[in-house]
Amino acid sequence: MVLRRILVIGAGGLGCELLKDLALLGFGNIEVIDMDTIDVSNLNRQFLFRMKDVGQPKAVVAASRIQERVEGCTVVPHFGRIEDKPAEFYRGFHIIVLGLDSVEARAWINETACSFLEHDEEGNVDLSTVKPLVDGGTEGFKGHARVILPGITPCFACTMWLFPPQTKFPLCESRASLFADSLSRSDDPIPNFPSPRHAGGDAQDARALHRVGPPDQVAQGQRDGGV
Ligand SMILES: [Zn+2]
């Protein structure tokens, strides 16, 4: 297991937990990508970060903190947008774990994973080209986790129509802003929320590709050969 290459996308609230759990589970070859820098409002829940880290890239600080605490674990950080890495970067990992906060970023990485799929002459998926995605998400006090095996299970785009309309729960950030107030940094009352800043993928394209819609349309998509 220690030889498996795992990519964690996002080093925020979910990402900090994911990195800690994966490292403690024995995964010794982890990489993490995140485009954000640490804000004082993150410190109440993104436990890998300290006050002295404010302004530093989340991926870089999270990686070094995990390596300090978990012996034998290597974490390689990537500070930047997921869209700026070539597809080959993502192909090199055995598993991709998502700690994202936007639908757009999930749609983008989902499309990238789906683009790796190859089929034989009879249309069967070449299992060696299936890139497992482990998707997690939080909204308010609720959370979800699921495994997506592109070409085998419904992918993110296939099931996008199931999502309820997005509701804004500024809970952790408003508490964070109280925290920030106490530190005299209250210029932005609800910093970072909502934060679709990983945006870049085109959800409309994904819908068209996977014929996303109510069940009758999905069935039509499957008849047409949609993933
Ligand atoms: Zn799909």
Walk me through what this model shows:
- The chain has helices spanning 13-25, 58-69, 87-91, 103-115, 171-182, 203-210, 215-223; strands at residues 6-9, 29-34, 74-79, 95-98, 133-139, 142-148.
- With 227 residues, the protein is an alpha/beta fold.
- The chain has a six-stranded mixed sheet, with helices on both faces.
- Bound molecules: zinc ion.
- The site of zinc ion (ZN) has 5 residues, from loops.
Q: What amount of the residues lies in strands? A: 5-15%
The first-to-last residue Cα distance is: 30 Å
Spatial strand sequence of the major β-sheet: 3-2-1-4-5-6
Which runs of at least 5 residues are low in confidence (pLDDT < 50)?
A: 182-209, 218-227
Average pLDDT rating: 81
The biggest beta sheet, please?
A: 6 strands, mixed
Output the number of helix runs.
Answer: 7
- What's the shape? globular
Which radius of gyration do the C-alpha atoms yield?
19 Å
The tally of beta strands, per DSSP, is 6
Helix share bin: 25-40%
Bound molecules: zinc ion
* Protein structure class: alpha/beta
> Which series of helices and strands comes N to C?
EHEHEHEHEEHHH
Describe the SSE topology.
Layout: E1 6-9, H1 13-25, E2 29-34, H2 58-69, E3 74-79, H3 87-91, E4 95-98, H4 103-115, E5 133-139, E6 142-148, H5 171-182, H6 203-210, H7 215-223
The structure holds zinc ion.
Residues 155, 157-158, 210, 227 line the site of zinc ion (ZN).
